[in-house]
Specification:
This protein has 348 residues and is mostly helical. The chain has helices at 2-20, 26-37, 49-73, 81-98, 104-129, 133-153, 175-180, 189-206, 208-218, 220-225, 230-256, 269-279, 284-306, 312-326, 328-347, and strands spanning 39-40, 45-46, 162-165, 259-261.
Length: 348
């Protein structure tokens, strides 16, 4: 309910901003409807490609949201999903270019391992030396980016912006999805994302590991008293968190491109994943819904521009969602204060 209210407030403020700058907010909502349904109200036409691209934009956001959510439920704050995403992307690209005839499952597995390994470094320093995971993961984002550039540029045949083409066997493309969505880029990453959401839910809600992680996240001292190995769990939590982000890197690199890319900067999926996780209350269903919402907004950006709506309004809505989520504890305190005040006045 809180998340729904937060999203509503974000759209409400965005609507007011558009009115203040003299733009018609209906253009924003028309673009959103077109992305979700494929129907263009201006021309009266329908194109399923918009729906396919909506899912394409949502998949890495959901996975990076799972990355942030998994660590948050374990009492950690992983700001390094962007670096773990880059680690996974780099591993997938190297396998896709270097191993002739390799199946896409090998490249995806390599990306998951790379993302998990990158996340576990921050977890180890947190568990062993009590180094803040916030500081560690922020700095490791930059380290991952620069290592990515150094490694990728050394691949034979690479230029400053791309590698040679992948082998066909590592592509995540799906001809059936393309046929039903008018040649959109929707690919097998959809199945991997659904599977990742299920794994997240099973681990967090139905497993002994998930119970121990949540217990440590709620109260480390109580968890230690109960015999839970908190230090080990910290490393595991960050490793699993990184694995989700690494999978996002594989889906983007192998599902949307036929060649590897040499990134010049952050792509933002890891940072957007923080908003997705917080907005979804770090639950599997909540993260999925928020990932679809933010993916919808990102897909609607070019359509909004065609309707004279500034594309920056999408970033404003996403930022407002985070701000309102952050205000939630303050709102709760205010409500409790008002209730206590009414009770006191009633007694008098």
């Amino acid at each position: 309910m809180v998340s729904a209210v937060v999203v509503f407030l974000g759209f409400l403020v965005a609507t007011i901003i558009l009115l203040l700058i003299g733009r018609n907010p209906s253009g924003m909502y028309q673009a959103i409807v077109q992305v979700v349904s494929g129907f263009d109200s201006r021309r009266g036409t329908w194109n399923a490609r918009y729906v396919g691209e909506w899912f394409v934009a949502s998949m890495p956001l959901i996975l990076c949201g799972l990355s942030m959510g998994f660590s948050a439920r374990s009492g950690l704050f992983n700001i390094g999903a962007e670096g773990q995403y880059i680690a996974g992307l780099t591993a997938a690209q190297i396998i896709g270019v270097s191993l002739t005839g390799a199946h896409w499952s090998i490249a995806v597995l390599g990306a998951i391992v790379a993302g998990g390994a990158w996340g576990s470094i921050a977890g180890f320093f947190k568990a062993r030396f009590k180094v803040s995971e916030v500081v560690t993961t922020i700095m490791m984002n930059y380290i991952a980016l620069f290592i990515h550039r150094l490694v990728t540029l050394r691949i034979p045949g690479s230029s400053t912006f791309r590698t040679p083409d992948f082998t066909n066997t590592v592509s995540l493309s799906n001809s059936f999805f393309a046929s039903i969505t008018n040649n959109s880029r929707l690919n097998n990453g959809l199945w991997l994302t659904i599977f990742a959401v299920l794994i997240y839910w099973i681990i967090m809600e139905k497993s002994t590991l998930g119970f121990s992680l949540r217990a440590a996240g709620l109260n480390k001292n109580a968890a230690l008293y109960a015999g839970i190995r908190v230090k080990t769990n910290i490393t595991i939590a960050m490793a699993v968190s990184g694995a989700f982000a690494g999978l996002a890197g594989a889906i983007v690199s192998l599902g949307l491109f036929t060649h590897g890319r040499v990134l010049s900067g952050f792509e933002g999926y890891g940072f957007d994943g923080i908003a997705v996780a917080l907005g979804g209350n770090c639950s599997a269903i909540g993260i999925s819904v928020m990932g679809l919402l933010f993916g919808m907004l990102k897909s609607a950006q070019p359509l909004m521009q065609s309707r004279q709506i500034p594309r920056e309004i999408v970033s404003i809505i996403m930022g407002l969602v985070v701000v309102f989520i952050a205000l939630r504890p303050g709102i709760k305190l205010f409500v409790e204060w008002r209730a206590k005040k009414r009770k006191t006045e009633g007694e008098e």
